[in-house]
Amino acid sequence: MTTKPVVVAVAITGSVPRKKDNPTLPVLPPEQIESTHAAYEAGATLVHIHVRNDDESPSSDPARFAEVQAGVRKHCPGMIVQFSTGGRGRDPAARGLSLVHRPDMASLSTGSVNFPTIVYENHTTLVTDLATRMKTHDIAPEIEIFDLSHIHGAKSLIEAGLMSARPHVQFVMGVQNAMPADEHLLDILLAETRRVIPGATWTAAGIGRYQASVMEWALARGADAVRTGLEDNIRITKDRLANGNAELVSVAVEAIRRHGRAPATPAEARAILGLRAA
Ligand code: MG
């Protein structure tokens, strides 16, 4: 059993509209910075950021990404900033525009998959373009694994010299029409990743009601990180909504301590993921 610290990643916003049933979802930059700060105080060391337009539709506006990043860097010393290059409702050609602002990390999907109501399309030319921009700006990718083939998509980028041989990968489970949240499937994904990308660090995200169980399975297997946040799940229990991202982070920290580990400090988190110092 490992006792090494665990990176707590918080996905604060995502692409789903703010509705009556998720009133604490932070959508505009000041709300996002405040929510991230509360999550940081609760133990989060990595923030995964989507931004919105003023009408709350998904945005790719680099200025808005820069605004959130500046607020996080000011109020959350050392926290790892990760921009999303994915998400619904964004023009594919605009998904990489924010990378000029050099966040520490950016998410990178290495293949396509069915989502609840759309095809989440990641053409090989787009994947290559995003990976090239990340390499140019010295941004570490987090590879989003929505299907087993995406592990091999990441390996192709390593072989093409577009990515470090030690990427961080995240298995995403419980998205309707994509991979189910299934413990045996996690073992398959992890074994294949270790075979194909032996240097990778890893985490797993469970969507909706699967958030807690996927986190348990990941911690039981010595994951380098866990992921929580309102992007993935808005409930603490079936009958109670989370008060915000910080409450979900507190639940994650309790799970980490139950496994005899501690949440990483920002400096530890950067070392675990092989990132530059803040
Ligand atoms: Mg996302």
What string gives the helices and strands in order?
EHEEEHEEEEHEHEHEHEEEHH
What class, by secondary structure content?
alpha/beta
Instruction: Kindly report how far apart the N and C termini lie.
Output: 30 Å
Radius of gyration: 17 Å
- Quaternary organisation: single chain
Rounded mean pLDDT is 96
- Beta-strand portion reads 15-25%
Largest sheet: 8 strands, parallel
Which word captures the global form?
globular
Characterize this entry briefly:
The protein is of the alpha/beta class.
Structural description of this entry:
This protein has 278 residues and is of the alpha/beta class. The protein has eight helices and 14 strands. A hairpin with a 2-residue loop joins strand 13 and strand 14. The longest helix has 14 residues. It is globular and about 45 Å long. Magnesium ion (MG) binds next to loops.
List descriptors.
two-stranded antiparallel ribbon, 278 residues, binds magnesium ion, globular, 8-stranded parallel sheet, alpha/beta
Give the SSE map.
Blueprint: E1 7-11, H1 29-41, E2 46-49, E3 51-52, E4 58-59, H2 62-75, E5 80-83, E6 105-109, E7 113-114, E8 119-120, H3 124-136, E9 140-145, H4 149-159, E10 168-173, H5 183-196, E11 201-206, H6 211-220, E12 225-228, E13 235-237, E14 240-241, H7 245-258, H8 266-272
Parallel strand pairs: 1-2, 1-12, 2-5, 5-6, 6-9, 9-10, 10-11
Antiparallel strand pairs: 3-4, 7-8, 13-14
